[in-house]
Amino acid sequence: MAVILAIESSCDETAVAIIKDGVLLSNIVSTQIEVHRKYGGVMPEIASRLHAENISIVLKEAVETANIKLEDVDAFAVTRGPGLIGALHVGLQAAKTLAMLYKKPLIPVHHLAGHIYANEYVAKLEFPLLAVVVSGGNSELVLMEDHLKFKVIGKTRDDAIGECYDKVARVLGLPYPGGIPIDKLAKEGEHAYNLPIPLKGEHTYDLSYSGLKTNVINLVHNLEQKGEKVDVPNMCKSFQDVAVGLVVDRACKAVEEFEVKEVILAGGVSANSYLRMEMKREMDERGIKIIIPPMWCTTDNAAMIAKVAEHLYERKVFADLNLSADPNWSIEDYLEF
Predict the structure, then answer these.
(1) Residue 1: pLDDT above 80?
(2) pLDDT one-digit tens code per residue, 275-299
(3) Using N-to-C axis directions, what is the helix angle for 85-102 and 44-66, rounded to 10°?
(4) pLDDT at 127
(5) pLDDT for the residue 202
(6) What's the mean pLDDT in 94-118?
(7) Strand ranges inside the chain, DSSP E
(8) Contact, 109 vs 6, CB < 8 A?
(9) CA dihedral in degrees (55, 29, 271, 19; nearest 10)?
(10) What is the CATH number of domain 126-292?
(11) Are 198 and 246 in contact (CB under 8 A)?
């Protein structure tokens, strides 16, 4: 029974988790949201500094909660990418130091693979499946024929959906992160603003949010210049219908073309209640099984990194101590490091 300690530090959460034979012994997360909220988004240099301050504290708590000693760990796993380069380096250096000190294998893990495999805390994955990965920095549709076989069939051409939510929230005077307040206010509003549907008419699984974001920002500014008040709940509803509708549309087309057995949601935006509701409704109509991750799995954490690491440990996917971070690492190239 392997004991794996995993570290995640790709953005603004410093996290350490310990797993033993599929059982999660600890999952400690230190978030920086309150610090970055005043800036309306993550400040990379501040994030890196806070990771450096927090990593040893989080590590100590994870080990104590799991009631083990570091000598008991069989392998150390770490998020190699994608993410903020400075933030990734903090976690990577910690994992490399532990692997060197205790002479144990080092396992590089892809951050998005972690979000996908977080769903294993709900149920075993059934293949072929479609993973709908939606977060602050990434928007991808990933087809999986088997474990650790990733094929990206659609991705964002510009902004990720989560980034778009944050920027729309900012122009509407809503707090960071933007997904929560927009989702909440959308329930009180009506689809009253005519917003463009990205990539309308194109036969593609790609996503695009830059145009939608710009359209909302310009519309708000134009209304303000005319002295007209923006109906924030109505704007939230109008925006969310289009933003989420694009994801759901692409997922439905992919499910039919690739005849998958299962659909899973992954990433921070998978916490969005409207996305969860619409995806479940569409998949239920098609008789397709859908796994929706628990809320604690939607934000960045190390438990999801540990879950992928178990599969990589079985296949002896180890890296040497020359391993470097890769902020643009493609999930299809997860074995190339």
Answers:
(1) no
(2) 999 999 999 999 999 999 999 989 9
(3) 30
(4) 97
(5) 87
(6) 98
(7) 3-8, 13-20, 23-31, 75-81, 106-110, 129-134, 139-144, 150-155, 262-266, 289-291
(8) yes
(9) 100
(10) 3.30.420.40
(11) yes
Average pLDDT score, the chain: 96
pTM of the predicted protein model = 0.94
What stretch(es) of the chain map to CATH 3.30.420.40?
Answer: 3-116+297-333, 126-292
Does residue 184 register a pLDDT over 90?
yes
Q: Any idea which residue has 């079985």 for tokens?
A: 314
3-state SS class at 125: coil
Q: Which of 292, 294, 11, 5 is nearest to 160 (CA)?
A: 11
Question: What does the alpha-carbon distance between residue 276 and residue 207 come to, in Å, rounded to a whole number?
Answer: 18
User: The domain at 3-116+297-333 falls in which architecture?
Assistant: 2-Layer Sandwich (3.30)
CB-based contacts of 152, cutoff 8 Å, min separation 6:
140, 141, 142, 143, 330, 331, 332
Q: Is the pLDDT of residue 175 over 90?
A: yes
Please check whether residue 329 is in contact with residue 81, taking contact to mean a CB–CB distance below 8 angstroms.
Answer: yes
Q: Which two tokens stand for residue 269?
A: 């935006």
Residues in contact with 173: Cβ distance below 8 Å, sequence separation at least 6, in sequence order: 232
